[in-house]
Structure formats: structure tokens, C-alpha cells
Amino acid sequence: MANLDIVNNLKLIGDYHTHTIYSSSKIYKHGKGRIIENAKRARELGISEIAITDHGPAHRFYGIKISELPKIRKDIEEANKIIQDIKIHLSVEANIIDTPSGIDIEEKDIDKFDYLTAGYHLGCESGQTMKNIISYGRFMPRGRYERLRSNNTNMVIRALYQNDIRVLTHPFDKAPFYKDEIVKACEENHTLIEINNRHNNLTVDDIYEIAKYNIKFIISSDAHRPREVGKVGLAIDKVLKSGLEISRVVNLERRS
Ligand SMILES: [Zn+2]
Ligand SMILES: [Zn+2]
User: Fold this and answer.
1) How far is the CA of 19 from the centre of ligand 1 (A)?
2) Among 25, 103, 137, 177, which residue has the least CB neighbours within 10 Å?
């Protein structure tokens, strides 16, 4: 990050997609670091804001427990007392699922977060997981594959229209989707398209293609351990290669 930063004269204002130990279950620690460790790393890099976006509760292996939200909020307050020059947001990476509301955060819980982000993940109940795993390698008959692709696309569009989602995380990842339909829904709902440093399904060509829509982008580390916070070199590389204007990436600015 530091090198790219100097070479391209770009500054990352905030890293709004980071995970912590709250993305874990009894048997599996998915996120490795604590909130304060993510904040410290951001401060080391001169990043002024981070968001804690642990996985939504429907994930079988590493979803947050809604009952732990007060504890997470308290950890953020404690971290802010120690590291006062970083703003830490409490968000969530909600799971997009095949239910009427489209995500795994119930309406009564939405206000407990500063804002929502959401993405599609395998491993959730009502998430079409088995069908999408089977679709890998295209062993599925074409008709069934296209129906699944339509269902996946509708699932994401429903989530975007039914909820106020600030960021669609790693779009087009983990399953087949119709890209234009999803991007149009982001345009209409003012949802940011994430360029994720860990996931590659939004390619340079995709960014070039979808830039014709009236959408804005955000780049994220999707850090699962503190040392990954602010690590967005691959995402910046994609932005530059696609020719996207820096002003369309909400958390990047040119150093003056
Ligand atoms: Zn994710
Ligand atoms: Zn994530």
C-alpha cells in the first residue's frame, strides 16, 4: 500500500470493510484480530476511518451473533478512547439470501448498525449454497444453470431494493449472476460497488464496462487480520488499469 500510495499519489481515506474475531464460531476463527488492532493498523497507515463489517448472522460457520452487538459497540467505544484520531464505524457484511427481505439482518436490528453493507456468500441457510457449488465447473445442464443465474441475480436485486445497503461487497463473486441487472439496481438505489482487494470476480474489464452506469465505487481490503487493514494495492491497480476516474471512488483521493 505505502509504495503504491507514493507511486500513484493516491490516499486511502477509509477502509470500510474489515473483519474481526466476531466473525467466528466456536469451532472456527474466521476473523483473526480485535477491533482495536484493526484501528491501530489503520492509524499506522494514516487512514482516518475504518468500518467493522463482520459477517451477517445467517452464516453457518462465522456469522456474528446479534446478541453480541452491545459488546462489539462497547469494544469500538473503548478502542476510540485509546485511539482518538480514527473513526470506527459499526457495520455488518450482511448475507444476501433468498428470503422476502433479501438479507439476514432483521428489521428490528438494522438501527443497531451505523449502516449496512451486503454481499453474497456460500454457507448460509436460504442462500442457494448447494446449487451454486454444483454450478461450479458448469456440470449443470444449461437450462438449470441459467435459471440459477436468474435466481441469484433476483436475490441480489431484491436485497438492494428492500434494504438501504450502502455497499454491495465483492459483486459477482461465488456464483453466476447477470452483471448489468445488478449494477442497474445499484445505480437506482445509490449503492456503492465494491472493488475488493481479496476477490477477483469484478475484473478490470467489468469495471470498464459498468462504468457507463451512474454509479460510484469503493475500494476495500476485506481484511481478515489486522495486518491486512488498508491493503488495497490490487484494488487500486484495477482502478488504474480500467481507466476509472479517481473521483468516482469515494474513499480515494489524490494527494495535493
Ligand atoms: Zn464477503
Ligand atoms: Zn468480508
Assistant:
1) 10
2) 137
Residue 118 CA: which ligand is closest?
A: 1
DSSP letter string, 40-89: HHHHHHT--EEEEEEEPTTBTTTPPPGGGHHHHHHHHHHHHHH-TTSEEE
Q: Which ligand is nearest to the CA of 119?
A: 1
Helix or strand (DSSP H, E) at 8 = helix 2-8
Grid cell of 27 as nine digits = 469451532
Say how many Å lie between the CA of residue 198 and the centre of ligand 1: 9
Q: How far is the CA of 171 from the centre of ligand 1 (A)?
A: 9
Q: Which amino acid is at 4?
A: L
Cα separation of 256 and 244, whole Å?
19
